[in-house]
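Milestone M4 deliverable, item 7.
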Amino acid sequence: MAFISESQSTASLNESYKSAQQLISEGWKIISDGPSGMQLQEPRRLGNLGKVFLALGILAVLFFWLAGLVLMGFSLAAYLLSKQETRFFPKS
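Output delivered:
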């Protein structure tokens, strides 16, 4: 049976705190900060499919108005439906 010393536990909490602070500086949002810990959520990003729809939509607007608007709508839908990663950092 292995026991974790106080200094090892404190060191792991400091590492967890540093990684959480790094994620916050990269734009992650704090969803909850309760007594058990902190939960962070990744910011939304436009994926590859959304970028393709957006590029094609911009080009299509120049020649075919309605098709371009539809493609840009698909790009917006891809952005809004993208999943965001969440991470939990315990306090104790």
